[in-house]
Write a structure and sequence with these properties.
The chain is of the alpha+beta class. The protein is built from six helices and 23 strands. The radius of gyration is 22 Å and the shape is globular.
C-alpha cells in the first residue's frame, strides 16, 4: 500500500507510565465488514473481516502511516487512558455506548476509561469529533495550515474541569448543565478516575440517553419549541444542502409545510423537537415512496433548525402569521453570528433567547485568558465541533453577504478543516493531564 500521509501522535499527557497507559486503536473502513486495522508500528494491515480493533499502548511518539486506499470514510483513531494494570479490550467497530458509563437497559460496550475520537481521511476532512462528549484534550495541526483544531496543546485537562465549573456558575443558563461534569465513583461498570481526575464532560445528548428526565435538561427547549411552532408562523430561507434553493412556508401548530424548488414540499413536525429532542437530532427513516433527494432535503432542513436552536437564534428566523416575510429572512437570522449563544431578546417575541450552554462553553470557555480550543482565522469561534448541532450553517444569507453555497472559511465552526488534508503531515497531540 502506498502512503498518503503521516499522522504524528505526540503524547504530552505527562502521566506516570508506571501508573497509567495511553492507548490508541484505529481502523479504516474498506468494504462491507472489511477493515484495515492499525498495527502497533503505525502501519495498517491489509483489509480483512473484523468486528473490533486492538488497542496499542503508546510508549513513545508514534507515527501512523495512512495508506492511500479506497475506503468507506468510516475511519478513526480512538484514544483512551487506563490504569497501567488494565488489560485493554479491543475497540468494537460499532463504537461505545453513551458516554461515560453503561446506561441501564441499553446494550453495548463500555469504554475502559476516558476516551476521545479522531476521524480522518484518507484524503478527506480530518476531525476531532468527540466533543460529542469531552474525554481527552486532543488537538491537531496540518502542515502549512496555521490553525489549531481542537484543544490548544498547552491546555491541561485539569484546567478544563475548573473552567467548566466557572463557566456554568456564571452563564445565565449554566445551572442546568453543571451535572454534565461527571466524576465516576470508580465502582463496577464505571470508568476509573485517572490521576484523580473527572471521567468526562458529558454531552447533553449522551446524558439524556441515560437520564431521560435529567433535571433542567429534559424540557429545556419547551417554551422555545412551543413558540416556534405556533399556528401561522412563517419561515423563509435558502438551503445549501441536498435540493438547493429557497424554501418558504407556514406552521399549522403541529408542523411546518415548506415549499422549495420545483414545488418540492417538506413537512417538519413539532414532535421532532419536543421534550429532550432539542439535544438529540435523529432524522427519521425514508418514508415509502419518498425519493432519496426528498429525504436528504428533509434531513438538511431539520439540521438547520437544530443548529438554530442550539445557537439560540431559532426564533429570530420566525415571522408571525399575517406579516410579510422576505425570501432570506430566516437565513439572515440564523447566520447572524452576533446573536449566536447569547440571551439577546429574540426577534419573534422579545424574550431572552435560550441556547446550548455545553456548545457555548467549548467555543468561549477560557484558560489563562485564551479559549480552550484553537480559534478560527476570524478569531470569533473556537474550532470546537464536528457534529450536526454545531456544524457550519447549511443555509445561505445574501443580505449578510454570506454566499448561498458556502460558509466562509474564516468563520469555520467545527474542529475540522473545510479543505481536504491530502498528503500533508498531521500532528495529533494528546494534551497535558494536570496543570504544570
Amino acid at each position: 500500500m502506498t502512503i498518503l500521509n503521516e499522522i504524528k501522535v505526540l503524547d504530552l499527557s505527562n502521566l506516570d507510565p508506571n501508573k497509567y497507559t495511553v492507548w490508541v486503536a484505529g481502523f479504516i473502513g474498506a468494504t462491507g465488514s472489511n477493515f484495515y486495522i492499525l498495527q502497533s508500528d503505525g502501519s495498517f494491515a491489509a483489509p480483512a473481516a473484523a468486528t473490533a480493533a486492538p488497542f496499542h499502548g503508546i510508549t513513545s511518539d508514534l507515527t501512523i502511516n495512512v495508506p492511500n486506499v479506497t475506503n468507506t470514510g468510516n475511519n478513526r483513531l480512538v484514544f483512551t487512558v487506563t490504569p497501567a494494570t488494565t488489560q485493554n479490550i479491543a475497540y468494537p467497530m460499532n463504537g461505545y455506548t453513551a458516554y461515560p458509563f453503561q446506561p441501564p437497559g441499553i446494550p453495548g460496550t463500555c469504554p475502559p476509561g476516558p476516551y476521545d475520537i479522531f476521524e480522518f481521511g484518507p484524503n478527506a476532512q480530518y476531525d476531532v469529533s468527540a466533543v460529542d462528549s469531552f474525554g481527552l484534550n486532543l488537538s491537531f495541526q496540518v502542515a502549512g495550515d496555521l490553525q489549531t483544531y481542537g484543544v490548544r496543546p498547552s491546555v491541561a485537562r485539569a484546567q478544563i474541569c475548573s473552567a467548566f465549573n466557572s463557566f456554568t456558575q456564571t452563564d445565565p443558563y449554566g445551572p442546568a448543565f453543571t451535572q454534565l461534569l461527571y466524576s465516576s465513583p470508580g465502582s463496577t461498570g464505571y470508568p476509573p478516575l485517572i490521576d484523580g481526575q473527572f471521567s468526562a464532560i458529558v454531552s447533553p445528548k449522551d446524558w439524556l440517553a441515560i437520564h431521560k428526565d435529567a433535571l433542567g435538561l429534559a424540557y429545556y427547549w419547551g417554551d422555545t419549541v412551543n413558540a416556534f411552532f405556533m399556528d401561522g408562523n412563517q419561515l423563509a430561507f435558502f438551503l445549501n444542502g441536498a435540493t438547493v434553493g429557497h424554501y418558504a412556508g407556514s406552521c399549522d401548530g403541529g408542523r411546518y409545510t415548506l415549499t422549495g424548488p420545483d414545488g418540492l414540499t417538506v413537512h417538519i413536525p413539532k414532535a421532532d423537537f419536543l421534550g429532550n429532542q432539542g439535544f438529540l437530532q435523529a432524522v427519521r427513516p425514508r418514508n415509502p415512496g419518498e425519493t432519496r433527494a426528498h429525504h436528504r432535503t428533509f434531513g438538511q432542513i431539520e439540521a438547520a433548525l437544530f443548529q438554530a436552536f442550539s445557537r439560540g437564534v431559532a426564533l429570530d428566523g420566525v415571522v408571525k402569521g399575517g406579516n410579510p416575510i422576505t425570501p432570506d429572512y430566516s437565513s439572515n437570522a440564523w447566520t447572524n453570528t452576533a446573536n449566536w449563544f447569547t440571551n439577546h431578546p429574540n426577534a419573534y417575541n422579545g424574550k431572552p433567547s435560550v441556547y446550548d450552554v455545553y456548545a457555548r462553553f467549548f467555543h468561549f470557555g477560557t484558560v489563562g485568558g485564551q479559549t480552550i480550543y484553537g480559534r478560527n482565522s476570524s478569531g470569533k469561534f473556537a474550532m470546537a465541533y464536528g457534529f450536526s448541532l454545531d456544524e457550519n450553517p447549511n443555509v445561505g444569507s445574501t443580505t449578510l453577504k454570506i454566499p448561498t453555497n458556502s460558509w466562509p472559511n474564516g468563520m469555520n465552526v467545527p474542529s475540522k478543516p473545510l479543505q481536504t488534508v491530502g498528503s500533508q503531515t498531521v500532528t495529533l497531540t494528546i494534551g497535558p493531564w494536570g496543570a504544570s
